[in-house]
Amino acid sequence: MLLPERVRRFIQTRALLQPGQRVVVGVSGGVDSMVLLEVLRRLGYQPVAAHVNYRLRGADSEADEALVRQFCRQHRLPLRVARIDLKTHAHGRSVQAVARSVRYAFFKRIAQKEGIDTVAVAHHRDDQAETLLLNLMRGSGLEGLLAMRPKRKLGPRCAVWLVRPLLELPRAEVEAWAQAEGIPWREDVSNANLQYRRAWIRQELLPLLARRLGPDVAERLAHTAALLQAYYDATFAPDLHRRWQEVADVSTCTLGLDALRAQPVVWQHRLILEALQRWLPGAPRRRKVVVQVMRLMQAQPGKRLELPTGTIWRDRNALHFRLRQTARHPDRGLLEPDRPLVLAGGTLTATLLDTVPERLDEGTPLVAYADAARIRWPLQVRRWEPGDRMQPLGMTGHKKISDLLTDLKVPVSQRDQCYVVCQDDEIIWLVGYRLAEPFRVRSTTRRVVKLHWQPEAPLSKKVCNA
Questions:
Q1: What confidence score (pLDDT) does residue 298 get?
Q2: Residues flagged as binding site for ATP
Q3: N or C: more exposed end of the chain, with fewer CB within 10 A?
């Protein structure tokens, strides 16, 4: 059977593409991606080629790009090119890992811009065998041994699919077809650099295994990955889904501690990894991080674990996962009468009233009244900090803000979002919770200041009633 027909049947069997579908094709200029582009073109699909020039290999990088441009011009194929100085993106990280991240982000961006829902890449059967061995040596566990799937989503909460139409073909057949059909390609000399683990597996380990165990060893390794994928889908995945529903509250991004502790330890580890993947995308999904989260489960409420993309809090009954987001507004500023102060999380206003309202309790902690005679403008507004103290309304002594929030049963995950309104070094109002005793409205008060906090999202009922 001719190679294009084998690819067509694999695409049909695995439901990778619809006939005549537009598809973004990652094209490096190497033999695998050039074959994929040509095969999809001959099968009647509408490829949009996407090439990334990392500018790592000087003239060779430019020659790769020139080859892809020439081929696309010759066959009148649309081409999108990204030219990136990868060294400025690496910052000490693995060049290969950064290149992969940049590459797939570019493919995704092109697909979304073009209104295309599928990206095709040229991994073949030998790549699959290499990936299984690489993950085995990394200690990646069961899911690492699944290696690469023929079809998956390009990322979490992403509508774009990633497909691998050549995944059942051996490298030798891909190269033989390219030679027979006169398909041009270029060799990337870095693929032979043994300092890269994948290159060492390709150049040293797989040939050794083939000599000792037979020439079809890559085929058998790829078959093992396919079997594991089938077992995973039929058994492990449904069990993971059931256990996730038992321990996770997706509305609050929390794992219930009692439910989590009731799971076998191996499942505790896997559910923590699931939470990291879903709620803190980009966070390291490594054994070291899992161990740190397990220790957090045994720590005192209030303890936290800071990760590159967010924070995990240990509350009384749950682990809270919060993704770090870039604030649209500042978290500090100066407050003056009738000039709303827009902050991260809400807006604070101060209104001067010439008479004292009949009722000072409006039924919401988001409003507080202070004696205007004791206020010196402007007031400072900021997040509370460790060591902050205030004299809460009705008390003669001072109390730490941290202790006050604990007494009010404010969830640990919300405490660092709380603001304080200050006059010099004295706290007037723990916003949404307590006014300070020195600033209360007295019988002798003539004018008052109405402080009003309007959060972007309503506080939970539990918090509002604290």
A1: 94
A2: 28-33
A3: N
pLDDT tens for 295-337 read 999 999 888 899 988 999 998 899 999 988 766 788 899 999 9
User: pLDDT digits over 212-225, tens only?
Assistant: 999 999 999 999 99
173 or 364: which carries more pLDDT confidence? 173
- pLDDT of 270 reads 96
432-436, long-range: CB within 8 Å, 24+ apart, which pairs?
432/365, 432/366, 432/459, 432/463, 432/464, 433/365, 433/404, 433/405, 433/408, 433/466, 434/390, 434/392, 434/393, 434/404, 434/408, 435/368, 435/369, 435/370, 435/392, 435/393, 436/390, 436/391, 436/392, 436/393
Domains and CATH numbers, the chain: 3-225 (3.40.50.620), 252-323 (3.30.465.60), 332-464 (3.50.40.10)
pLDDT category at 457 given cuts 50, 70, 90 is low
d(CA 4, CA 183): 13
Among all chains, which residue has been given the structure tokens 């997706």?
Answer: 250
Q: What does pTM read for this prediction?
A: 0.70
- What does the pLDDT look like over 49-88, one tens digit per residue? 999 999 888 899 999 999 999 999 999 999 999 998 887 7
Structural tokens at position 118: 């599928």
Give which of 240, 218, 243, 244 is closest to 231, Cα–Cα: 240
In this model, does residue 264 exceed pLDDT 70? yes
Q: Confidence band (pLDDT; 50, 70, 90) for 401? A: very high
